[in-house]
Structure formats: structure tokens, C-alpha cells
Amino acid sequence: MNRDNALVTELVDELEDDLRTDGILCLYQFSWFQDIGSRPAERGEIERLSHAAYDELLRRYPDLRLVWVTWPDVTPSAARPAAAETELDFFLDSDGPGNDPLLAVVLPR
User: Fold this and answer.
1) Which of 21, 71, 102, 109 has the most CB atoms around it within 10 Å of its CB?
2) How many CB atoms lie within 10 A of CB 109?
3) Where would I find the H helices in the chain?
4) What angle, 0 to 180 degrees and rounded to 10, lies between the N-to-C axes of helices 43-60 and 3-22?
5) How confident is the model over 81-97, as pLDDT tens digits?
6) What is the Cα–Cα distance from 107 to 69, expressed in whole angstroms?
7) Measured distance CA(74)–CA(21) in Å, rounded
């Protein structure tokens, strides 16, 4: 297993726990778990690994749905479907107003 595959597997394993527990997973968590706050110069690498982890999560859970949620109600019941052409965004705007919609994936129940 190469280094990237190992990093992606580790990331997905971490994220998968939250997804199974909560039934929902915000996409910013893909970069959050990679410690984006202390590695801003590596944003491109973090985004690349986030996309790979997203693809792996979809492979493991083909029924995942891409949705929008708004903080603080980050629950499956508050999720609104995202359009198929929605561009994935793995980064949280910590300087934003705090009520911007967030992309997430939801496990169908």
C-alpha cells in the first residue's frame, strides 16, 4: 500500500465512525481531520486526499446522498438535497458568518 492509499484509508476509517454514529458527515471534516489549520500551505494536497477519501467513502456506501445543512442543525432530518452538479467543498470558512450552508453526506436510513 502506498503512502497516499494509507492516508486515505486512515482518513476514511476516522470519518466512517462519525458517519455511522450520526448518519451525517459534513465535508469540511475531510480537511479538518487532516489538520488543515496547521497546514494551510498544503491546501492542494489536503484537497486531493479529501477527494480520494470521498470517492472511497462512496465506494463503501454507494447510497450516500450529497446534501446541504446549515449550522447548528447538522442532522439528517434537516438535510436538503444538493444538485448533482454541486462542486465538492472540503473547507470551512472560519471567517464567514457561521450560518453559511455546508455540504454533507447522509446515510439513508
Assistant:
1) 102
2) 6
3) 3-22, 29-32, 43-60
4) 60
5) 999 999 999 998 877 77
6) 14
7) 13
